[in-house]
Every structure is written in structure tokens, then in C-alpha cells.
Specification:
This protein has two helices and five strands; from the N terminus they run βαβαβββ. With 122 residues, the protein is an alpha+beta fold. The N terminus is likely disordered.
Length: 122
């Protein structure tokens, strides 16, 4: 039986050393001899360092409060609440014999209508 999972080994050459043709050729040879490792080198390898630094610097200006524009939830089969849930939505669970209710939502994230009430996360 063949192994269905395959793992690809990759090595990225970035920064100042990424500009060296000599280093690239030596690394390419080494990768071929050591398990056919794929050597990656972007067109402008020094730009990866600059982009990373810029992204790191922008973290300081990220918003300290975030608000959700919609509520998110999933429909679930929850315990039936006598006198609250309509009887036509009742269902008996065959696994544990409990009475459950179809059509109830379990809210995971609530919509925020007043962002000024949110706590600061900074």
C-alpha cells in the first residue's frame, strides 16, 4: 500500500544572502543531494526582510477595539425546555433517550451595536 501522505521539504533563501549567486548554486546542489529539497528564492530576497519589518511596525497602529458587524452561530440540537420550546420541534435522541429541540441557535459571536461599550484590548 502506498503512503497517501507526502511531505514536501522546502528551504527559502531570503535577505542579503539571497542575493548571492554563489550561495544559491551551492545550496541548490546541497538540496538535490539531500532528499530533493526544493530551494525557494524570491526575485527580490531583501524585500522580504523589509516587508516583515514594515508589517511588524504596523502592529502598533492596529485598532485596539474590534467589533463584529454580524452575529455568528450554529444551529444545534439542544435540550428541550418545557414551556419554552414549541412541542412540534421536539425530538427524542435515540442515543441517550433525552428530549431535544430542533431549530435552536447557539450563538458564538454577538453583533456589536455600540462599539464604545467594548473593553480596550490593547
Amino acid at each position: 500500500m502506498r503512503n497517501l501522505l507526502t511531505f514536501r521539504q522546502r528551504l527559502a533563501l531570503i535577505g542579503g544572502f539571497g542575493d548571492s549567486d554563489y550561495l544559491y548554486s551551492k545550496m541548490k546542489s546541497w538540496c538535490a543531494l539531500n532528499g530533493d529539497i526544493q530551494l525557494l528564492c524570491p526575485e527580490h530576497p531583501q524585500a522580504a526582510i523589509v516587508r516583515g519589518a514594515a508589517l511588524r511596525g504596523m502592529e502598533g497602529i492596529a485598532p485596539s477595539k474590534k467589533c463584529c458587524r454580524r452575529s455568528y452561530g450554529v444551529g444545534s440540537l439542544q435540550m428541550f425546555r418545557e414551556g419554552i420550546d414549541p412541542e412540534h420541534r421536539a425530538h427524542w435522541n435515540k442515543w441517550d433517550g433525552s428530549k431535544r429541540c430542533f431549530g435552536r441557535m447557539e450563538w458564538l459571536i454577538a453583533k456589536v451595536t455600540h462599539p464604545e461599550l467594548l473593553p480596550s484590548w490593547s
